[in-house]
User: Fold these one by one.
Assistant:
Number 1:
Amino acid sequence: MGPETEVVESVSDIPVQDPPGEEFSAADLVWAKYASSEHQRDDVALIPYERMEAFIAGECNNPECPTRFHIERGRKRERGTLREVRSDDYLLYRMYWCSFGPENYGEGGTILPSRKYRLNTRNRAARPQSMRGCTCHFAIKRLYARPSLVLIIYHERRHVNKSGFICHGPLDRDAIGPGARRVPYVGSEIQQQTMSLIYLGVPEENILQTHMEGIHRYCSSDAKVDSLASQYVQKLGMIIKRSTHELDLDDQASIRMWVDRNKKSVFFYQDSTDTDAFVIGIQTEWQLQQMIRFGHQSLLASHCSFGVSKLKYPLHTLLVFDSRQQALPVAWIITRSVTKQDTLRWMKALTERIYSVDSTWRIGGFVIDDPASELDPIREMFSCPILFSLWHIRRTWLKNVIKKCSNREVQQEIFMQLGKLVYSVWSEKNPMAGLEKMFQDFIDQTTFIQYFKSFWVPKLEMWIDTIRSLPLSSQELSGAIEGYHLKLKAKAYDESQLDALQRVDWLVHKLTTELHSSYWLNLYADESGSFPEVKAEYIASTSWQRALQIPDNAVIFDDKEPFSAKVTSQKDTSQMWTVWNPGSEFSLCHCSWSMQGNLCKHIIKVNMMCGPRKDFQPLLSFQSFQRVLLDLWQKPMDDSFSLDLSVAWVMQMQERIQKVTELATSEGIAQVSGRLPIQWSNKKGRRVAAKRTSPLRVLPHSNGTVQKDFTPKKNRKRKRLSSLSG
């Protein structure tokens, strides 16, 4: 680093530095020694807040020790929460740690990733752990008194382990062999990218070309480097092909061994006993990052009971939605237990893991797809509204109507009647009475009627009560969840692996290797612009995105046939697809995709066009939203306080919706923030201004009660060392 100055005792005495260039590192800054009650002569520098990402990027691209820095922990506070402000008090605090630390998975005889691979018959992991005990870390503080500036505190500059030796990168002396220093650096991003391509079945020559492009970002190209890179790709491919899920012949013992060797990817584990059910919660570091990134102030969805009849234990997945509203799996829970106690245990472990990284993380809503789901643990751990998705019931009904009824007209009529049954849940009519009429009208369809009576009638009231009590999610979200379901089904029910469905270790291996690598590569291709074919396939993986590619003039409505609409095929303009019962979640199309029970792009496009038309009723999701507003408004007129409270809730919801809509339709956040009014306050008010309350903290819960914020508050009182010395 640059030269150091004498010890300073106030951040105000540290000059602001703004090195030129898109990126800069610690070597481009002049560091000062700073001492206070919280800092013991730490190296510090002051830079503009808008250049923080440029500094982090520069530190990652250190040629001697290229790495990535992850957020080890963070805290945040809002303006107006401190009565006395010191020069180093923060609005935002984050500690960044080199991704090769702080843990050291190289201890205990395990071969480090920088050394040569060795195949072990009892541990054929596809990817060795990359944690090598690196102690390099720094912290950033966005200053409370000067929010436009960031204070960088470098606690350990060197990329060394606790013994003081360089533990990763080209200068790692622990690498085996005389040519170890010339071995090309393979970071976790390049390694994950290469693994993902191998799992997807990309030809080896294409994988090698992509791998070398990543290697050349860190070192020059020569024959030796290219040869070593080729050997690395071949060796990694061999390890993946030889890897197996069976660490032990006994499935229970095998999963215990996997948990012991992958502690960083397991947030909860409960072994099966006489009193406790088997539960394992899996979340990789990448999934944790995406959950914090895309889940904050957004929706978290639950995909329940996958493989309930085929797998040894059903799979429960938590999903977030990326910038394209595509579903990303951020946690997998394997268990047969749906009790409140077990659900609360793994949810508590998951939220504690997230809060340890970002204590300000909150979700805007939780979406369930199973009415049997326990709601109390969700309300207790996430403190958010709960929504209900109809994708599962729609898909199941449609698949069985098509499978058990051969006549197309009968399929249309039965599916339309089932849709009317769901649409009538808010009317005064009894939905079960309409069901009896449907049984009489289609008495000749004995196969379907017997199936429906035996499987659905006993639990139909539970579904109807859930639809009445919870707001319903949109078709876009249903399409995203269905897209994940189809991808998971294709990976899990591979015909060559059907004999392994009754082993938990096989399911864990499948999730953490093939499925995880697939989603990692999809998001990487979308955000980096690499692999255009993978990106295009990822974007078009949901029916909603495919529906957006259909022009409006391709949809034709005929007043003479109000119960159908036609969509012109984009591949063959001479072909028309007919959508029956348009403007409903229970529309039916005769394209091949819809005939498999899926929500096709033609139905979604027709429903998009039906929205503004007055001759079609609103979709169920919009009707449930109207019911929420009406429930808030339907208060006794003589009960003035309740009426005032309802109006306040509605106004908060309206203001929030307007802001979200304005941000979505604007060109950027700068355009929105430029129209915000300037707030003036007196000198005293700057110190004791009231903390603003988020609308999410006062909105009513799904059960109609007001949910208070029970987040434990930290004690803001500080005792200086000077006051304790006496």
Number 2:
Amino acid sequence: MSEATIELDSSTAVAPKCSNVNNNNSARSSRVGSASSGPDSDAECQRFGWCGWNPAWLQRFCTAKWALFWLCWGGALQGLIVNGLINVSISTIERRFGLRSRQMGLVASGYDLASFACLVPVTYYGGRRGASKPRFIAIGLIVMGMGSLVFLLPNFLVGNYRATIAEANVCEPTGLPFNSNSSQSMTACELNAMGEGQGENLTWTVWLFLAAQLLHGAGASPLFTLGVTYIDENVSKKMSSVYLGIYYTMATVGPAIGYVFGGQLLLIYTDWMTVDPVQLSLTSDSKVWIGAWWLGFIFASAICLLIALPIFGYPKLLPGAEKLQLERVSEAHATISEVDDSSKVVRGLPRAVLSLLANPTFFFLNLAGATEGLVIAGFAAFLPKQIENQFSISPMYSALVMGLITVPAGGGGTFLGGYLVKKWNLACRGIIKMCLLATTVAALFTICFLVSCPNPKFAGVTTGYKMQASSDSPALVASCNSNCGCSRTNYDPICGVDGVMYYSPCYAGCAKEDHANSQKRYHNCSCIEQVGWVDEGSQSSEAPHFRPDATNRKCESTCQTLPLFVALCFILMIFTFLATMPALSATLRCVQDDQRSFALGLQWIKVRLLGTIPAPLIFGALIDESCILWQESCDKDAGGACLVYDNFYISRYMWLLALICKLGSVVFFACAWWFYVPPSKSSNANGKEDVN
């Protein structure tokens, strides 16, 4: 990093060049009385401002509290975008662009892939003496904002979403019976080839989403590496845990805000600027409704730029940080001097890796972190979608449920775990035992995923037409609609008065369509049992008329198990996050002091490679295995979104994944506790380690 010249408040003179005051170098220089730069020069380098403009009134912000304030917003914004807005929009994006869950799993993994790839260069160049950590963090926020802009590009690169066809999608007898779905699909694809344009392949958008996630991962990588170090360097050792606790708590609150905010945006129609959904008789209760999933990323990218601006203004070290670093150097001076030669560091690297891998407690804590990371990353990406499909609720309501669970359970569990370690003054063995007990309880509450609802009634898929028994494979064509010439590319689901969903008015055999009260109503449906004459004009002077056989609404679910699921999932999440901070503390305590930074980096690599990177891919593939009706596509390689899931299998798959991961964590924590050998008690009079 080039040296900067700093302008004085009201003087035109140029201040002396900033000395190298970062990290331990400045502390050592001050200890030995180096006169290379005076205290006035150091003070100028520790002023808040931009490009030499640092007036006195801005210096009130040059404190650790204000730095923490802006970093907290950065951490919360990362969670809001990556774990909030994106995760709550996964099912909507799949339906909008015809993508499968395994494809969105690849997109979700892109964040951790980029974050993993940027770990070494960001920590190396950002951690060098003289490097400005705030500048790296601010640049990362700008890159993350660029990622949000790229993420919303597919919405503007494709045409308007065709939620429903403009003309009436009703049964028009052709006189030629269709006996198989394949013949219908052939006819639909022939129409598309002639220019009807209803089968556009949009799977190429997955690469744009992946590129955006790579930018998100690269931009966020300095936040929880250099950001943590910057906080730790500029506060006392005693206050460091408090500041970092606040920082990580805000990072946990971010996804919850994203869930709630993103869910509300899904109530707005995706093409609200050019299309009036009322004219299409569409509301957010319709199965083909697509909300404005992209709108939140515009706000997120703007906020990224706004937060980057003040972070850019912070110096390499805050005023008073040198004294704090001097104390820390005094404690570890002998160790540092022993490895001051870079060649010794290079030669000692393989030995350090082998030393940590030979530490059984550290090794098993790493494996426990990987299994916990796998289950947390997988459910963070796909739990909103599972709730939406399992309990037949809207994406907005599913996002609200996730937000209400995440804030108190995730944030509260993280805070409570760190508080209990300090309150009980636990030593390393006690901390590992606490992690073991919390994970065991969490494993028991994975039964929440066994709480499911029966499959919604869908004619030709989960139930037969006119309440007849369904076949093993989807059979949308029946005697009541075989001569209608229906196309599977026209997915326009309706709810019949019999409480059954139908693929489209055509597949329900409906002969007439009308519009009333912002909804489409269908009559004379040959596949729906008639209910007869119903008086709907009792509250007006209008004459009674026939009740419609179906409407373009989603059938209401009669399943009432959602509150039970939320309660059990809440307990599961509390005990899951209860072990996160203690596990981090145990990792730091079970290694030598001079190995802590390297141990955390090594653990971070293992958790990413074995946990968070493959997690969305595994979860997405199993969710796809639960699909029983896929969206029709003329391009066999295009895939297509799932239209109907089997609730039984999706709940069992999720339960098995959660149970296997949790049991793995229990085994690994138990092994870490069993193989742990405490140090001699000579270091402490009472035999207990310092919590700090």
Number 3:
Amino acid sequence: MKNCAICLNSMKAGQGHAIFTAECSHSFHFHCITSNVKHGNQICPICRAKWKEIPFQSPAIEVTRGRTRINNVSLPQNDPWVTVLRRLPPPRVDTSRHVSSLFQTTEPSVFDDDEIIHYQPETMENNSSLNDLIADNSAGAIDLKTYPEVSAISKQAWHSNFTILIHLKAPHTIVPKQVGVDQCGSQMVPQHSRVPVDLVTVLDVSGSMAGTKLALLKRAMGFVIQNLGPSDRLSIVAFSSTARRVFPLHRMTDTGRQEALQAVNSLSSNGGTNIAEGLKKGAKVMTDRKSKNPVSSIMLLSDGQDTYSLSSPGAANSRTNYQFLLPVSMHRGSGAYSHIPVHTFGFGADHDAVAMHSVAETSGGTFSFIEAEDVIQDAFAQCIGGLLSVVVQELLVQVECIHPRLRLSSIKAGSYKTSLISNERIGSIEVGDLYADEERDFLVTTDIPVDKSSDEMSLVKIKCVYKDPVSKELVTANHAAEVKILRPETTGQLVVSMEVDKQRNRLRSAEAMAEARAAAEGGDLAAAVSVLEHCRKQLADSVSHKAGDRLCIALDAELREMQERMADRQIYETSGRAYVLSGLSSHSWQRATARGDSTDSTSLVQAYQTPSMVDMVSRSQTMLIGSPSPRRSLRPVRSFPARPIPR
């Protein structure tokens, strides 16, 4: 066990103490070493090496408004990202004012100055080589499978709430051959190997972001910039007390990347937190643009609570109206598939998790909880790993009853919009975009009537319709999947489908998380923990869990983690609420979010990660900007002590 050389106490993970690792590789408690160097001592107490970089001289843990802030982590001077920033012109800041001049210079009233799109679908008809590439990329089709709850029901039996599982898997990405690396060390790939994106990042630069938080944000943004291609376009919006577009929607060519990095380098922290203004400005970039790439998204990061829109004078009950933060044009119900998802990132212990979750849920995005501040780059990497691999758009799943006496009882699809029409004989699920290799599972229930007329019954047929993001053409599955069951005179011991069972466990777990969160918000943490424990026992008794199913094992690990984070009110307020909301976001959309140690390769909680996401996170964890050397893998430092919950 490692001990701090200053206080001689252990430095075991999970004890609530931040760890500082110096450039000479020796480690100390953060609060011990900051005390040691506060008078300018830059000599390692162990090896006597002279340090070029000393830790930020601030308390390792600050308690603000009853919340524990996670410590900052120092960036070493030999960090290649720091080297990149040194090469860029320094930001121009008006130090005589409370807010930097960045927010006080004029900007255009209409953001129609987006750079022309290099990717033009209409020019593809006369390009044979490009058509070949499109054909390769469009060759894959959605893999559609169905699973009835059981394979047979007696002719004499009536079966209520019979479950049918619809399983979808998106086609995989065709990975082109590497043709070299650019001057920053990033892979260069063919121009049209995937559809390009329009990405707007809305970044909190309020006073609480000062110091290493802002440095880590800049490094994470550097990673995003270096991994966007020349057909992708990026715009950067920064907000504190007000908001400003600091970089227009430009293509990430070599010049575009350099200019974007310079814009990131110009960011400085000051002022309050006006999330609504930041989102309004980000939405304006999207709505004012003259042209659009096939994929569009917004990434919002904040470490605090909105000090303007949610607490404005005279706004009765506005504290609970979190949807007010998001412009109406960006709400998911504002038009069929016309919304732009906002993927939100709550940074540290003091962010407003409820607000960030609400913004994501309302827009169709995901909410990630960045508990350890040095994991921000991995969280961004996971998000863009998905955005840069969209292979299906505007996916609509249609379910139609075949047997004349059947009706659909329910469609369980999480946050996806569902509908039942034609006397409940036809149902639909609006899925939208899918990333490469991404999977979706939906449960449909119906009542199976007595039927003595045949030995087989056709229940429903499933059809998928979607848009190919490359060709822009609508694609319909070659044939509708038909679900049938046998109707013998008698049946023996029937075995429930393993696939149906584990998806029931997933839905049951998500419902337990929501119920536990409601109890916790009502002040009854004991009831919340009890709900989760009951769900874990149900999981343990299920067929799929007993068979060692990986999804069920991961669900149990996640439920246990939530129990630990509901151990007392302080832990729940500090990290439990955000962790649970991020989990709910992930399960409701069946899409990966970052929370706790979910981006670590050894974590059990890695639900819904796609190969593209894993690859991008791996790049983040092994490569630094402009350098091929590996980065030390970082596991998040929790802001609460680990407390095992007995089974």
Number 4:
Amino acid sequence: MQHKTLLTLSFLLSQVLLLACAEDLECVPGFQQKVFYIEQPFEFTEDQPVLNLEFDDCKGNNKLNFEVSNPDFKVERDGSLVALKNISEAGRALFVHARSEHAEDMAEILIVGANEKHGALKEIFKIEGNLGIPRQKRAILATPILIPENQRPPFPRSVGKVITSEGTEGAKFRLSGKGVDQEPKGIFRINEISGDVSVTRALDREAIANYELEVEVTDISGKTIDGPVRLDISVIDQNDNRPMFKEGPYVGHVMEGSPTGTTVMRMTAFDADDSSTDNALLRYNILRQTPTKPSPNMFYIDPEKGDIVTVVSPVLLDRETMETPKYELVIEAKDMGGLDVGLTDTATATILIDDKNDHAPEFTKKEFQATVKEGVTGVIVNLTVGDRDDPATGAWRAVYTIINGNPGQSFEIHTNPQTNEGMLSVVKPLDYEISAFHTLLIKVENEDPLIPDIAYGPSSTATVQITVEDVNEGPVFHPNPMTVTKEENIPIGSVVLTVNATDPDTLQHQTIRYSVYKDPAGWLEINPTNGTIGTTAVLDRESPYVHNNIYTALFLAIDSGNPPATGTGTLHITLEDVNDNVPSLYPTLAKVCDDAKDLRVVVLGASDKDLHPNTDPFKFELSKQPGPEKLWRITKLNNTHAQVVLLQNLKKANYNIPISVTDSGKPPLTNTTELKLQVCSCKKSKMDCSATDALHISMTLILLSLFSLFCL
């Protein structure tokens, strides 16, 4: 009853609109009513008429044919819409496309629920919003136009008609808006005399779904005499866009042993068609699964949501028994609710079965053997294990621990990252004489913890038996290095030290001989039998072979083994200083101008190779000066420096001044050095000493001459 009420109201509305302008109506090609509202029944009954559609091409409807968007319905020749089978769900809308030899049109049938009835009626009677008729009386009737997208040529094609009840002479229709005189321009046009509206090219609903135009009536001068009135043109969706998977690649993960029904991932496709129609109603399906073992149907996809879930028991979802832990599903998305007429797209979903640590690592054998020579370090054996978990995860990677037999921390074990083997190494050299055998107990675990119902068993521990081989070891000096303190310059043949070396191979009873290995200055010798070291030359602390007062020599201890083994001992001799070096004076040349006002000639310094207290403070003295007048004097500045000062200006000449320097050693040592003093002529800040050689005066010669004259 409610269904019939909606149809009756819809029909009455169309009749009211047509009668309002009956005196001026002409035949308009197409459906006489373009929008229908029907209430969703409990079920559409097979072959039971749903409603009547009236189509008229105004030329006899020759070769009239109807197409329905839902293949479960058809339209009879007389316009009756009937169901082809009993249907409980038909969607939200049906579209009927009618085509004859002279016209084609589209009608929309909206299916509403019982709770939507009042809203539907409101939409039918909302004249101003949907049919372009204002509340005040207007002479223009512009009913909404529905145009299917993707129509085929020829164009232009008539799609509707605007009529007016007032036949003003010379009046013309004028159409404006987006699609006419606004971009995109030129899609629609109107016959200014008849009011026929035509489309000039195929429309694309996905580009523009609705056009809101305005139509008005003008007089012969172009002045508006009625309107404007809104003309709504809606583009009816066609299923011209296939679904698209846009978000790939699609990769999902599921843990092995997961319960049945575990969600792995979601696959969703996009359809550009009208989402309110079956054209964009997608359904999902698994077309193919690779591989097909242990079951060809490992997964299920929710046809509406696209959720992929597991459908096999947790026992079958066992990564270690699978042919491969990677499954590929070819997923199909089909529009039109999955019907055969729907368009499709496919994508591949890759599902990886992730490993969990459900297998403990196990040694490949219970006991391993290793042999190592004493004194050698490095890897001695590789321990092998098996683990059925994924090698790329912490459930497979092994961690080894020595749990017994390593009190001296002589052994370490590390995991080979490529093979997962345990590399057992000697890190502290072993001594055969202390222990010839070692027994280690080693356990293996995974980086990741085992799952609760799995535990490490006896096979996760192993024993390693290590045999140490005896090697002829070189003698060892005690202590090493050896240190001794001696004065430099001790007599040749003096005993420096008697060294002591022992053979670690206590069970072999070998003899030891000694020899010099490195003696940079050639000062030492060693008794080959008892190891006594003596001097063969004077020990000089100031020698370049002595560094920081220490002289270093190396000696060898050689056993009688076959082949013989050698040990090296280092001797450090600390040399005590003796005052055996005279001090030296610097500089030995000085220059001064013959007219100099500053008669401080030069500052002298003294140095000594010896050590304190055999060096400074130094004593500086001048030899006795000739003649009644003293020409210069020397003044001490500090412990290491003194200054020579002229007492008067001298003539241009060379003078040799004997100066003695004495150190503070016991006994002290003195050194006399001649200071050469050049008295030069100085003009314009230039010093000329070229003629001083000719006027050379040696104080020594002067003293000798005066002494000779005095004797005569």
